[in-house]
Amino acid sequence: MNTAKTLGAAAALLCAATFAHAQPAWPAKPITWIVPFAAGGPTDAMARDIADKVGRQVGQSIVIENAAGAGGTIGAAKAAKSAPDGYTFLVGHMGYMGAAPSLYKKLAYDPVKDFDAVFRFPDTPLVLLVPKSSPYKTAAELIAAAKANPRKINFGNAGVGSTSHLIAALFESRAGIEVTSISYKGAAPAMNDLVGGQVEAMFDQSNTALPQVTGGRLNAIALTSLQPMPQQYPNVAPLADKTLPGFEAATWYGLYAPKGAPKDVVQKLHQAYLKALADKTWTARMAAQGIHMLPEAQYAPDAFAKHTAAEVEKWRKVATDAKIQID
Ligand code: MLT
Fold first, then answer.
1. CB atoms near residue 59 (< 10 Å)
2. Which of 54, 123, 302, 318 is the most exposed place for a label (fewest CB within 10 A)?
3. Angle subtended by helix axes 263-277 and 301-321, to nearest 10
4. Are 244 and 256 part of one and the same domain?
5. C-beta of residue 167 within 8 angstroms of C-beta of residue 249
6. Is the predicted pLDDT of residue 326 greater than 90, yes or no?
7. Based on the domain organization, do 231 and 134 belong to the same domain?
8. pLDDT tens digit string along 275-284?
9. 222 part of a folded domain
């Protein structure tokens, strides 16, 4: 190799070494997780719990940024446009990362093309909740009233296309009823109006439903899990028991990076999450809220990416069958 080429190669090596030296090791600053609902809802609660544990593992604080609106699609679009630098992520779920492409004709992002899956969270079944003062003691009673009074019973939800909206739409379709949906910027504000009686019913994930029920502010009248949850909701039957045989639903969640994020960062976050899950006190506390742990392999980036793609396809059929359309 002649002198000029040798010098050129040496200069390139020096630049690479300098650049590498100039890039501090990840994570060199706080990390942001975008939660596209108002604070205090089930997505926010799950995200803050997991962010705290993962942040301790990676040695950097993880800041939750609530960016609410349009059933989570506003925050998801913001995340999709963020720099793929390993410092901004999206907490996604089955609504805006699974069903949204089938519900919104114009969606500002593609859950599969615009994101890299980082790791899946545990799943959370939902609870059908009514105010303490409600006349409905079971799902069958609510369905009978809705059949007799089409579009008169109003259901709160966390936004059009949110889990609480989707599950209510599936419930309507299966039960052969029509209710009126009242949308909020998250489950938390919807729950406030449910407690106050401004709305008559709502589906909410078990992790935030349970304290409202044990605190005596709301009644649980049905579960979307196939199995009863006697520790959490004694004497509350799954919808699948008798009312709507085979009806099962749970919210899946997970962490996504804008497409092109550093692969070593994705791996470090996944490994940090698995180390956090080794804390059996923590996982027992989540299970006590009704959260379903998954087989460890399902948490992995590749498995979660496959799950997301499969869910987008699944919801094309589900939305058509249940006639759920947003815009
Ligand atoms: C939903 O999709 O209903 C969300 O989980 C609501 C929320 O987390 O606020």
1. 8
2. 302
3. 90
4. no
5. yes
6. no
7. yes
8. 999 999 999 9
9. yes
Q: What pLDDT sits at residue 1?
A: 46
Tell me the residue type at 40.
Answer: G
For residue 230, what are its two tokens? 């006697």
Is the distance from the beta carbon of residue 95 to the nearest atom of ligand 1 less than 6 Å? yes
- Mean pLDDT value of segment 165-185: 94
Distances (CA, A) of 27 to 200, 226, 262: 46, 41, 12
**45-51: average pLDDT:** 98
Is the CB of 206 inside a 6 Å radius of any atom of ligand 1?
no
Q: What's the total number of domains in the chain?
A: 2
**32 close to 65: Cβ distance less than 8 angstroms:** yes
Q: Which of 97, 162, 182, 253 to mutate to test the pocket of ligand 1 (most atoms within 8 A of CB)?
A: 162
| Neighbour-count burial of 298, counting CB atoms closer than 10 A to its CB (0-12 exposed, 13-18 middle, 19+ buried) | middle
Domain match, 304 and 242 both = no
pTM of the full structure: 0.90
Ligand 1 centroid – CA 229 distance (Å):
21
Residue nearest to atom 8 of ligand 1 (CA): 43
CATH code of the domain covering residue 139: 3.40.190.10
Tell me the per-residue pLDDT of 223-241, one tens digit each, with 9 for 90 and over: 999 999 999 999 999 999 9
How many angstroms separate the Cα of 106 from the Cα of each of 29, 103, 181, 307, 309?
A: 35, 9, 22, 23, 19
